[in-house]
User: Fold this.
Amino acid sequence: MKLISVFAVILMLAALALPASAQVTIPTGTQIIVRTIDVIDGNTAQAGARYRASVDDPVLVGSETAIPRGTDAIIEVVSIQEGKEMVLRLREVNLKGKTYGLSTAFDDIDAKGKSKSRKALRRGVGLGALGAGIGALAGGGSAAAIGAVVGGGVGAISAAGAKGKQLNVPSETRLIFSLQAAVPLN
Assistant:
């Protein structure tokens, strides 16, 4: 009986000596900055599509690192509007083999690009001049005129096929998401 009592006291002391694993909760409003791994192409992306990212800045709760830099994350396309706007959210992070679902504010990505008209004009004039120069070398006056028309036409076709505004999120893009609900980590 005495042996059992001594053993019980030793077990209780050992339990008290072990640190309690404290649960950390990341509060609402905390910003999580991620860097994309995958390219998110606005021409092929669809609502619900998921893309890989990684946490770019550690997420701190007080002085404790709750989510370290480099933690795997998943971004999801919430909606996409025909080449004009794409809405993304940070869906989850995978921390120490456990996946934590997140509720974040959406990040809107707008199409970026330049007007095609000025670029088309420069391309048409440049290729027209090149065609005229080649025509002049090849056969003189009438060949130069034909070369100018052909070169200008190639410039116009090439400008028409050029891409205007792009709705893409390149790899290595930093995105910032704000938590809409607290996330308990255990």
Remarks:
- Residues 13-20, 113-129, 144-163 have pLDDT under 50 and may be disordered.
- The radius of gyration is 30 Å.
- Residues 87 and 108 are 5 Å apart (CA to CA).
- Helices lie at 2-17, 116-139, 141-161.
